[in-house]
Specification:
Spore Coat Polysaccharide Biosynthesis Protein SpsA, Chain A, elongated
Amino acid sequence: MNFSPKVSIVIPVYNGSNYMGEAIDSALAQTYGNIEVLVINDGSNDNGSTRQIALSYGDNIRYFEKKNGGVASALNLGLKEARGDYLCWLSHDDVYLPEKVAKEMAKLLSLPDKNAVVFCRHSVMDAKGKYLFDAPKPPAFSPGQGAYQLILRPWLHCCTILALKDLYIESGCFREDLPTTQDYDLLVKMGLKHPFIEIPEILLKARSHSEQGCLTPAHLEEVERFLIEHIPLLSEDYMQANFTSPESMDAFLSLGAEMRNRHFSGAVLAVARQLILCEAQRTEPEVLWGAIRQLMIVDYPLSLAKGKTGTIGVYPAAEGYFKAWVRRVVPRKIWWMLSILRRQLLVNRK
């Protein structure tokens, strides 16, 4: 058996002559012996500067050029050309610490389930490479809850991960129609089937500089579309395999609150619908009704109140809209159970 399987490090780059050399150097400096470094030039138009730097490394790297198609297309070419059994990727402006691959591979190979995704922590540096701060610690969660945590909020720096190449392919590779969320799309799909395991150590330095993208309206719109599409992936089977009923209720309410705070109203509706589909069969109707009402009467109206601060009242029509929406979404049997319970609750309050 091969106890030192090859690891492919893919570096996608577009007009990256300013920082790319540092990224390549850090990849080549890995203490893990069996690596290959693939540099994918995604159609740079910098008068050959990116190409020149890459070619200066000669046979130490494998260099590919392609027509510009975005980072997802560059990563997919790296996946296609990679010869390693395991794969990770590195942004052209970030830097691996020397033991990043070695420590992650040691962790992976020690696990009973080799189909895991391992990730580490990272620090942040400025454009000149000066240390700024350590990124916040990842949330604590059980290995099977990775997909939920990634949907809940964007806490994972994707260049910290390492996994079997087959997991990337099994999960559909990188979606080229998602310019800014293609990495989280892939990782969520990995997390639905495979455990996420943390190495609580900083093994990546991420660079913060003015040339990076910002939170543009187009990016925010893509994020909400991403969430509306991916929240339904938190299926009944997934939630019941990884959360108790009370934990699942709390998880959906936390997700709804997060979507409310980010003013993603469509995502709040997606959370409410998924809560019903996942918990209608195992949660007490009174508890379920209260959770749905929280999402639809409180969180949903607040998610529509962009730019407003302070406490606001719910919409006058919210209660009626809520009942109509629940009746349209839930199975008929569950709807009647909820309706009877609600009438009983109203009688008891009088």
